[in-house]
Amino acid sequence: MRITILGGGGFLGKKLAARLARDGSLGGKPITGLTLFDLAAPPAPSAPFPVQCLGGDVADPAAVAAAIPAGTEVVFHLAAVVSAAAEADYDLGMKVNLNGTLAVLQACRALGTKPRVIFTSSVASFGGGQDAVVPDDGRQVPTNSYGAQKAIGELLLQDATRKGFLDAVSIRLPTVMVRPGRPNKAASSFVSAILREPLLGLSTDCPVPPEFAVWICSPRSAMEWFLHAATMDTSAMGIDRGINPPGRSATVAKMLGALEAVAGHAAREKVGFVFDKEVFDIVVGWPAAFEAERARRLGFAEQESLEDLVRAFIEDDLAATKAERGL
Amino acid sequence: MRITILGGGGFLGKKLAARLARDGSLGGKPITGLTLFDLAAPPAPSAPFPVQCLGGDVADPAAVAAAIPAGTEVVFHLAAVVSAAAEADYDLGMKVNLNGTLAVLQACRALGTKPRVIFTSSVASFGGGQDAVVPDDGRQVPTNSYGAQKAIGELLLQDATRKGFLDAVSIRLPTVMVRPGRPNKAASSFVSAILREPLLGLSTDCPVPPEFAVWICSPRSAMEWFLHAATMDTSAMGIDRGINPPGRSATVAKMLGALEAVAGHAAREKVGFVFDKEVFDIVVGWPAAFEAERARRLGFAEQESLEDLVRAFIEDDLAATKAERGL
Ligand SMILES: NC(=O)c1ccc[n+]([C@@H]2O[C@H](COP(=O)([O-])OP(=O)(O)OC[C@H]3O[C@@H](n4cnc5c(N)ncnc54)[C@H](O)[C@@H]3O)[C@@H](O)[C@H]2O)c1
Ligand SMILES: NC(=O)c1ccc[n+]([C@@H]2O[C@H](COP(=O)([O-])OP(=O)(O)OC[C@H]3O[C@@H](n4cnc5c(N)ncnc54)[C@H](O)[C@@H]3O)[C@@H](O)[C@H]2O)c1
User: Fold this and answer.
1) How many domains is chain B partitioned into structurally?
2) What order of strands is seen across the sheet that includes strand B175-176?
3) Taking a C-beta distance cutoff of 8 angstroms, is the pair A263, A324 a contact?
């Protein structure tokens, strides 16, 4: 089976490529080729199958078509301009998040073989804020351009599925933590920073108060969801191709509690609270909890505990992050 | 005040232009200019203000920019490829309904003066079917490309409103009846035909059974909603710029009862039932009833009775339809 990862050089794209390389197969079928596509050609993991690494713009239809060659059975569409960046530059967000998804749609349609497309939508496509518990049929009223562009992408891919052009599953990812590397332009960057920076021995400011709740998941369960979405029987989904997966609702205080339990009081003490209105104004609109019953019924896996989530970061990513940041 | 109607040559666009010409003002402010834009330059109504008539493609940004000159305070965006046509030709629907709305967004944004934009979305943007009573926060899961494109248009204009580029109100129109003229490519064409054709003395086939229910409104109340949406205080809407207006849920049998009450048994007898699976498969997905409480609270007017709706067609449109069709 041939697979393409668009955004294959990003946080989740790199992890997914490594996972596929390790597994060598997907859904019991051997992988015969993997294409990684990102603005700059991503590094190839060592794998038991050929890996092609391409640089290009996901908003460029020809570049995307080249990244989805004939015979591609599964496309992971992860390429995106993230929340704060799409809010700061409306035109860039529209170009990458809207035109990019249109280019993916057309490239898949041109194959004529209905590839499975896994699209990473976001909790940010919902409004509702701190008090909401979003039901499975909850309406998406985004409070930011990134969320609007993600909701639009879902509608495009859902309709393309109905038309028989492709076979989409859109996973509305929670905030994935702990993200390795450096703080980034996502408004939710702090959610990872408050665990990652102390584990690196660094101090960090949390821009929201301790009682602020966030809908989160771990990179490990994001990977499980991606693989499940790529291999599940989609006929059970009917026309509605959007999934609210079973993340976890956690307050900043709870996360810091898990940090302290795993890494001790000194780590916990590295986090100060400095309110940042710009960040707060974006993330305060995102709902902090979901029902996610439909996803459970469709076989999407549950989260590990917060403590295990912290431990997983230490196991999977701490050394590489230290090396990357020269620490 | 300067006003533009995109799709000004269509059923509702022509009625709206005539209404504005008659009123001479909108929301108490004298109209100083009206631009009508459609594929072919629409006919100008006789009006107490200058009327500019332009032909062009709403998917052509330059043409749309020319149709929305500096100083435009209100834009009615009615230009669209309707349901069955957008289903039959996916690319045409995407071009007109998606790229067209993007061109409208950019032209309004370029003004820098936040014009009010009234966008005609549709009941077809919802799924749910015959048994649904759609709540005000009902999720849009379209079962057709037209509905998906309308839902996307709403998201685009809602986000553009939040960004301060324009000030949008999207009205999810019920099936507007009685439509004058000839049957058209809308899957809902029969809803008007079963009243109009008998009033013209013609026989017609109804493609769905008598107990089939439809969410409808009259052209007169569509006009009231358009004018209200153009002049209302939108701050009460908050971020959610979509409106489910107070239409009426009516079965085919009820509509034919109203026809008989107004025009007699002979008129009723002109309607036969010949099931059409292609039409049925599109319209069966549309919900037949809505709560519409939010719209009532926001001042959107109720429907007249079905009998009055039939009488309004006779008063407003029967003679012109007869003339147009050489009857
Ligand atoms: N990480 C999270 O918490 C989270 C939460 C919700 C949704 N998501 C979504 O999941 C996906 C992956 O997230 P991530 O955390 O790996 O993000 P990331 O920013 O690390 O990766 C996104 C990748 O897209 C690439 N990209 C951006 N513009 C591009 C363009 N024009 N052409 C080609 N590639 C382009 C970037 O270079 C980057 O490598 C994204 O779609 C994101 O919106 C992530
Ligand atoms: N009439 C209804 O029952 C109903 C119900 C729900 C929503 N709506 C929406 O209300 C609006 C008006 O409906 P209507 O019944 O007057 O439809 P209509 O088809 O009579 O009018 C639409 C107009 O758009 C024009 N148009 C199509 N493609 C164009 C293009 N590329 N460039 C410029 N103009 C173009 C057509 O020429 C037509 O005059 C539409 O947006 C429709 O989708 C109508």
Assistant:
1) 1
2) B175-176, B213-217, B248-251
3) no
Atom 41 (ligand 1): residue with closest C-alpha?
A78
d(CA A39, CA A43): 12
The answer to whether residue B256 sits within a structural domain is no
What is the ipTM score, two decimals? 0.96
A129 CA distance to ligand 1 centroid (A)? 23
Chain A: nearest CA to B185, how far in angstroms?
19
- State yes or no: is A146 an active-site residue: yes
Q: To the nearest whole angstrom, how far is the Cα of B159 from the nearest Cα of chain A?
A: 6
Going from the Cα of B40 to the center of ligand 2, the distance in angstroms, rounded, reads 13
A275 in any annotated domain: no
Q: Which is catalytic among the residues A76, A119, A146, A313?
A: A146
Q: Name the residue of A19, A81, A82, A104 to mutate for ligand 1: max ligand atoms within 8 A of Cβ.
A: A82
User: Using CB atoms within 10 A of its CB, is residue A65 exposed (0-12), middle (13-18) or buried (19+)?
Assistant: middle
On the question of pLDDT at A184 being above 90, the answer is no
Tell whether A142 is covered by a domain: yes
Full residue range of the structural domain in which residue B28 is found: 2-126+133-174+218-243
> H-type helices in chain A, by residue range?
11-23, 61-67, 83-88, 90-93, 100-111, 145-162, 189-199, 219-231, 252-263, 265-268, 277-283, 293-297, 306-316, 318-324
User: For residue B8, which atom of ligand 2 is closest to its CA?
Assistant: 39
* Subunit contact A141:B239, Cβ cutoff 8 A: yes
Which of A4, A5, A6, A12 has most ligand 1 atoms within 8 Å of its beta carbon, as the pocket-test mutant?
Answer: A12
CA–CA separation, B68 vs B71, rounded Å?
8
Task: Point out the least confidently predicted range of A176-185, A190-199, A211-220, B308-317.
Answer: A176-185
pLDDT tens per residue across all 327 residues of chain B = 999 999 999 999 999 999 999 999 999 999 999 999 999 999 999 999 999 999 999 999 999 999 999 999 999 999 999 988 999 999 999 999 999 999 999 999 999 999 999 999 999 999 988 988 999 999 999 999 999 999 999 999 999 999 999 999 999 999 999 999 998 878 899 999 999 999 999 999 999 999 999 999 999 999 999 999 999 999 999 999 999 999 999 999 999 999 999 999 999 999 999 999 988 988 898 899 999 999 999 999 999 999 999 999 999 999 999 999 999
Proximal ligand: closest to the CA of A124: 1
A120-157 tens-digit pLDDT:
999 999 998 898 899 999 999 999 999 999 999 999 99
Could you tell me the CATH number of the domain that includes residue A148?
3.40.50.720
Asked if the bond preceding A271 is cis, omega within 30° of 0, the reply is no
Whole-angstrom Cα distance, residue B299 to residue B243? 11
A267 within domain boundaries: no
